[in-house]
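Pasting two entries for a bug report.
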Amino acid sequence: MESDLNNISPDIEKIYQQSKSIVIKVGSSLLVEDKLGAIKKEWFASFIEDVIDLRKKGKAVIIVSSGAINLGRKILNLRANELTLEQEQAAASVGQIELSKEYQEQFKLKGLICSQVLITLDDFTNRRRYLNCKSTLKTLLTFGVIPIVNENDTVATDEIRYGDNDRLAAQVASICESDLLILLSDIDGLYTESPKKSKNAVHIPFINEITEEIELMAGGPENDFSHGGMKTKIEAAKVTTSVGCNLIIADGQNRNPINNISKRKATWFLASQSVKAARKKWILNMKSQGEIVIDFKAEKALKSGNSLLPVGAKKCIGSFTRGDVVTVKGEDGQIIAKGLVSFSQIETEKILGLKSEEISGALGYNRKPELIHRDNMAFFS
């Protein structure tokens, strides 16, 4: 029996097939043998096969991988559940090398490149580091690289730690504007209560809205090697669905955990709007930190779907930094759009009216030429 909390059945297969950018979170219990403290070789190889299959279908893939602490803990002969923060950091330092090596070797055999990206909560709350992190991940995807992301446990203190990779994966999906986040777990989705504790637990196949009732169903961690649990997965779903990204909680214990995932028993958290629509709405609702006045030719180019280049900018007003929202106005004073500016106010003043090839000479360093990229702009009706 399944819950009827949401009675409109979505076309899950269509949603899955249309997802072009996918983040996959792999839990430590799936990846690492508890007793041996080593990678589950056969499962890992089958998971890599699934990722390669996604790439062949033209999908960008980012992996958020747990496992470093458990790998390092075994190497250092540290007992589970008795680790201080410092011991966890030491274990992470040792285990991260092992984890990265496994990914690199597997993907290299298939002719693919992967990279290591270590992040802390502070990297998302600090505006400059947030933009740098976003830029790096997007550039890696452009080059066809598969980023392997993990929390930087080696340097993160309690106040700047995520503590679990569910919420970290949600933030990565958000900044990369992904369509889908897959949380591979040791359970096949959300139930009305813990199926390990109650025979009356009812599985929920899809959720259109995260209500208080849904949140109350989430419990804590179910095993000793996880920092998360269903509660953190609900928190992750809140983040992703708010930015237009769908999320699925699926059982990843069997081999080829991604293969036919849209046809298996799982829980889907469905976003009410697309990534692009959610982003545009967010930009329009943000407070503007300044203005950029553009000429008629640039205005025409923007309305044709082009980015705003410095050559079409005549004047900037206000004090803003890279990544701030600014208002774009025409020469007649009419408000045209809002957008996330790629240069600070000081930099913008230096490059007003310049052609793209002249920007590096004016600034003294190379940057992408768009003053506001078309993907970071929202137009008023």
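Entry 2 (this is the one that rendered wrong in the viewer):
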Amino acid sequence: MSTGRSSVSPIRMRRVVPEGCTEADDLLVTEEPLEIRLGHGPVEDRREIRLSVTMRTPGHDGELALGFLFTEGLIASADEVVRVTVCANVKEEERGNVVRAELRPDVAVDPSRWQRNFYVTSSCGVCGKSSIEAVQVLRQHPLRPWGAIEPALIRTLTDRIGEAQTVFRRTGGIHAAAIFNRAGELLLLREDVGRHNAVDKVIGAALHTGMDRTDHILLVSGRAGFELVQKCVVAGIPLMAAVGAPSSLAVRLARESGLTLVGFLREGRFNLYAGEL
């Protein structure tokens, strides 16, 4: 689904070097808000929930919405969504930045499923216990164990996404999330100014194509925070690798969920925080 908006924006800037200052053209990653709405109810009485607003890079907005609904536990499968469309009846300044996901008429909407149950709203404050318990509830099936990892395979992952990161090559300022199979073949890659959005986009694309994710790898270009690990676990992907560091709560979730978690994957090295070597 395309909104017709570009993922990059040209700009004039001043380049300052020891020898002086010159004006030059530059390309920046486009960042705009996306409102996700949810249509639900019987055909004769459709209703709308204004679900979420996220700052994202335009492009693959339908996949972003689908992935968000799934990884947040609002839907159990892509089959529950009839379509995702760009909303036309909006203010001029919102045009192209509002999408609506239409649920099947027979899909019941439980308010408790669309209230984000993360640590900021958990009953125990910031301890994280309720957050991990919530993820275990959202997960449909136990993760299929990855088994012992092959260090040589893991080391090649970041090199294999280089050619596919088209926006990164033009701007140098965007995150990527990619899905590989067990042989290390790049199957899907999505880019976004937000790490969470990139992950939702690539998972949404996997859902849209009906990909079996139970024997695959998710690679993220930044840190492996709790919410990204949570999305990986809910999606049923058994191995997650991150270029940056994980958080303590992310490692705890990975170990309790049976997720193999790799961090600091760069320059031929990595740390294994959960899983077998």
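Dev reply: Rendering is fixed now. As a check, the viewer should reflect this: The longest helix spans residues 195-209.
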